[in-house]
Amino acid sequence: RLEEFLKQEVNLELSTLPDFEERVIDVSEVEQLMNSINAIPAPCAPVINPQAPNAATGTSLRVCWGLFSDDTVECYQLCYQPVSNERHSDGQAEHTLKVKETYCTITDLLPNTQYEFWVSALNASGISPPSERAVYVTAPSPPIIKNKKIRSCENAALVCWESRDINPVDSYTVEF
């Protein structure tokens, strides 16, 4: 039977035409989902530390901060400006530094001056919200001893000095 069937000529034409719809499949949502799986999220806001003892000189400050998450961070953006009593002072320039570590020493500052600092974390996905702002203070300039006014006797000495700082100094320590 098979041999006879194979010898027959078979008509492969369909009597009715198939009715197929042309459908365009939108895979953009799937692509977005796949891309989001491989992407790292933008980091959370860092936490800036308060000023540590002995972290200041008359012209420099060491600022430290940290992250309380396992975020991937490529670098940090440290911003600072002098603290001003005026609300919108145009003379108070804001400075920005890119830093790889979780600390930075800022130099060329004014003595006995308050500076406001804040930091953000950056990675390939974006920038974090800024940290809370922290105020750091540089050390005062050493006073100038007035040599012509020094007086002494057997049991006492009088030493006079003047401050070179614009802002008032809390106290002085005299060593001899």
TrEMBL record:
Gene3D superfamilies: Immunoglobulins. It comes from Molothrus ater (Brown-headed cowbird). Residues 46-142 form the Fibronectin type-III domain. Coiled coil: none annotated. This is FSD2 protein. PROSITE patterns: FN3. InterPro entries: E3_ligase_FN3/SPRY, FN3_dom, FN3_sf, Ig-like_fold. PANTHER family: E3 UBIQUITIN-PROTEIN LIGASE TRIM36-RELATED, FIBRONECTIN TYPE III AND SPRY DOMAIN-CONTAINING PROTEIN 2.
